[in-house]
Amino acid sequence: MARSVLGPFRLIWPVHSPLNAAGAYGLAVTALLLTAPGSRRRCVRKTSLVWNSAVAAGVVLFLVTAAYVRSLGVGFLADDFTLLRHSLTATAESLAATFTAPGGDGFYRPLGAVAFASQARWAGADPLRWHVVGLALHGLNSVLVYLLAARLLSSGFTALVAASLFAIHNNHTEAVVWVAARFDLLATLFVLIGLLLHLESSGSSGLRAVLCRAGAVAAMTAAILTKESAYVLPLLLVCLPDGRSLRVRLKAASPLFAVAGLLFAYRWMMFGDVGGYLVEGSPQALQVGFASTLKALGMRLWALLYFPINWSTDPGWLGGFGLLLLVVSTLALAATRKSLRRLPWLIFVLLAVLPVLPFLLVGADLWGSRVLYLPSIGYCLLLASAADGLFGWRRVTATAGLVLAHFILVQQNLANWEYASARVRAACLLGARHAEAAVVPAAAGLPRTIRGVPAFLDFKDCITAIRRDLAGAASVSHVRSQPAVLAWDPGRDELRCLEGCLEATPAP
C-alpha cells in the first residue's frame, strides 16, 4: 500500500514492485485456508436464499460489462495486426491445411485459426467488433464458471462469488482486451463445457450419459486444437470433488486421457518434439530449471493471483484502497474454519499451470498474465468455498470487498491499455504517412510492450492496417527524394521522424 501511494521508495532495501512480499502473503493465506483452525462454529452447507441461475448470470454479465466497457475503445496491438492480416486473407484451403501441418511459429492451433478467420468475415478491420466478441466470450466463460461452481460448491451464493471474482479478476485483462489472446478465451470456453458435460454424465444414465461423455470428448478435442494448455483437462476432471472415489473418477475420465494422448502423439509427429515457443530453435517448454520452477510455483503464482497489480504505473490512493480491500477480505476468509474440501481447488490451480510453467514468471507489469486465465478458475473456487465459513454481514462484506478491489485494479490497468493503444496508433499513422508505396520506413527502437501492454511486433502489418482504416494507401503514400528514418523516443513514448520528414502528419 505504501508503494501504491508513495511510488518506489527505500527503507532497508529499495522497493520497486513488492512481488516477493505479495507472493509470500499469498502463499501464507493459501496455507491458512487449508490448515487454520478458525472458528469452531459449524459451517452452514446451504443458504436459505435460493439463487436463480438466470439472475446470477445477469449479475455476472453486468459485472463483465461494467468492468471492461472501456476496452471497446482500445485499438489493435502487436500480434493483432499480423493475426488480422492472416485472418482477412485466409481461404478454405489454407484453413484446411492448418489441421495437417505445424505452424512455423511452433504452434498447432488450427481451430483457433478457423475461429479468427470466421470472426474476420464479420468484424473485418474494426477493433470495436473484435472487442465486442472478446467481451461476449469472457462473459460466457464467467457464466459457465457459475454453473460449474453451482455443482461443486455448497450454495448458490458461493457459486456467484466464484463467478463474480472470475469475471473481473485483473489477471484477465490481457486475455479479454488483447485480440491476439483470444486463444485463451476460446480454449477455456471449451474446457469449461467439457468439465460440465463430464460432470453431467456422472449423474446420468443411458443415452443421456453416452451423449454427455461424447460431448466432453469433443469439447476437449476442440480446446486442444485451440490452445495446447487444454491438454490438462483430463487431469482437472480427476481432481474435481464430484462425490465419487478417485478410482471411479479415473475410470470415467479414461476416454479423455486416451484421446488427449492420441492428439499429443499426432502433435509430436508433426513437430518432432512438444512444439511451442521457440528459443534458439528449441521449444521453450524444455527451458525450465528447478530454481525458476520453485520461484514460479512457490511465490510468483500467488503474488499474481492475490495481488494482480500493474506496477508499471503507480496505483495511487485508489489502488492503495484496493490493496487494503484485498488484504482485509483475504484475511477474513483465511480465518474461517479449516476444510480439506478446499484442497481440490489448490490442486486445480497447480495442475492448470503445468502447461504454462515456463511463462509463469510474469513481471511487475502483468505482461503475460493471460496464461493464468484457466488456472484462476481454481483460485476463484478456493476463495469462494472459504466464504461458507463466514456468516451474515461478514460474508457479504468480505466477498464484496474482493469484487470491488478487483474492479478498481481493472480500471487502473485498462488506463494503461488505452494509453498504449493511443501510442501505437499514432506511431502507425506516422509510419503510414512516411511510407513509400510498398516500402516501410525504418523505425528503430520500437518497444515490445508499453506499460506492460503489448505494443509492436511487425511494423509493416501495423502500417497496412492503418492504411486500410484510412480507406486506401493512396491517401497516405508519398514520393520523396530520400526515405524517412523513424525512431522511438522512450522518454515520450512516441515515434519521431529523424530524416526525410514531411512537414505535417495526420492527427490520430
Verbal overview:
The protein is mainly α. Helix content is 58%, strand content 5%. The chain has helices spanning 2-6, 19-35, 53-68, 79-89, 92-97, 110-123, 127-152, 156-168, 173-177, 182-202, 206-224, 233-239, 246-271, 290-306, 316-334, 343-352, 376-386, 393-433, 459-469, and strands at residues 9-10, 14-15, 278-279, 282-283, 442-444, 449-450, 453-454, 485-489, 494-499. Strands 5-8-9 form a three-stranded mixed beta sheet, covered by helices on one side. It has a two-stranded antiparallel ribbon with strand order 1-2. A hairpin with a 4-residue loop joins strand 8 and strand 9 (494-499). The radius of gyration is 24 Å and the shape is globular.
Identify the notable features of this structure and list them briefly:
two-stranded antiparallel sheet, 508 residues, single chain, mainly alpha, 19 helices
